[in-house]
Write a structure and sequence with these properties.
Blueprint: H1 15-19, H2 25-34, H3 43-52, H4 58-63, H5 85-94, H6 102-114, H7 140-152, H8 159-173, E1 190-191, E2 197-198, H9 200-211, H10 220-234, H11 269-278, H12 288-296, H13 326-340
Antiparallel strand pairs: 1-2
Helix pairs in contact: 2-3, 2-13, 5-6, 5-7, 7-8, 7-9, 8-10, 9-10, 9-11, 11-13
């Protein structure tokens, strides 16, 4: 067992018992691991995770799955948002679903078969047929989300995941890329959806995927990409989020400031802090304002509210919107225990 993070004085002492309530086993399992340092095979983690598979939202999400492993329609699974195959797999990983479950592995195998492109990365195709997306549809946000989910479900060494990781590293640094496509028109997270400028949302997702690779297993190429990506995110104050904006926009999207759960392709300020914390930058002075901003988002109870819950968009509602959120609170506490602990 790794040592449990020190509980900062800035956080309400009642938060931990609330997050550990047995009535929310998925949150309990994640809290035991993130805030108490319990290993995945700890008996309490195993019990909570097993129970989480038997109740909503995980139960209903898996009940909606086709026996072949897909959701809603066969094919690469980007549509419909946010009920299709790729979204379901990503959200299940965020919920801490058990990789040992046969349905989870069926979904992983389906994605590994139909989402890769010939360029190496995962492609965002909405077509309802079993055909791989063209290279022009590779996009940082989807690639990072799927790399993160597939590594979480035990596929770090799968050749398809390794190819997606290699694509991410080459696309970030611009090294060894033979051709730029519409969605990824250049290095440094440049994206067609952001008027060919670097996209911070894509950067966060891609870095979350690469951060899931243990540091001692990252190749020099991948580590170079991680370092370059972290430098990009640290080049702005996440609490202001004035990252490059295309199409004449001068004001960051309001979604940046709506802390939520689960997380699709949209990114919030907290997720920037999360990935930079995972990469060892929790105490970086450039994040101090963002940490202060995060603390200021608490309600009077000391809890954080879910302001972006995807209600009505997923197979089953995961949390109510505009109410105190265990998942958002857990996200915040994970960052703050690293940033504020003595």
């Amino acid at each position: 067992m790794t040592s449990a993070p020190t509980w900062p004085r800035d956080l309400h002492p009642d938060l931990l018992p609330w997050l550990l309530e047995e009535s929310d086993p998925a949150v309990r399992a994640a809290t035991l691991q993130r805030l108490q340092g319990r290993p995945v095979d700890d008996p309490e983690v195993v019990t909570a995770r097993r129970r989480a598979m038997e109740v909503d939202p995980i139960r209903s999400m898996l009940d909606a799955q086709h026996p072949d492993g897909w959701w809603e329609q066969p094919g690469p699974g980007y549509a419909p948002k946010y009920r299709g195959t790729v979204w379901s797999l990503v959200f299940l990983e965020q919920l801490g679903a058990d990789p040992a479950d046969a349905r989870i592995q069926a979904a992983a195998r389906y994605v590994l078969t139909w989402c890769p492109t010939s360029a190496g990365g995962f492609g965002a195709s909405t077509k309802a047929k079993q055909a791989n997306p063209p290279p022009s549809m590779v996009v940082h946000c989807l690639n990072g989300n799927l790399v993160r989910a597939l590594i979480g479900f035990g596929h770090l060494e799968d050749p398809v995941v390794e190819a997606a990781v290699d694509w991410a590293a080459r696309a970030i640094t611009g090294e060894g890329v033979e051709r730029w496509y519409a969605s990824t028109p250049g290095p440094g997270f440049a994206c067609g959806a952001n008027d060919r400028q670097p996209c911070a949302w894509g950067a966060v997702k891609e870095l979350r995927g690469l951060a899931a690779i243990p540091a001692d297993r990252r190749t020099p190429k991948v580590q170079h990409a991680v370092d370059q990506g972290a430098a990009f995110l640290l080049s702005r104050d996440p609490a202001i989020a004035d990252y490059p904006m295309g199409y004449g926009n001068t004001t960051p999207s309001r979604s940046w400031f709506k802390l939520g759960f689960p997380s699709g392709y949209v990114t919030d300020v907290l997720q920037v802090l999360e990935v930079l914390t995972e990469l060892g930058h929790a105490r970086d002075p450039r994040l101090e304002h963002a940490v202060t901003w995060l603390l200021a988002q608490r309600e009077g109870s000391g809890r954080w509210t879910n302001r972006y819950a995807y209600q009505g968009k997923t197979a089953v509602d995961i949390e109510p919107e505009r109410e105190p959120s265990k998942w958002v609170t857990l996200r915040a506490c994970t960052v703050l225990t690293a940033a504020l602990a003595a």
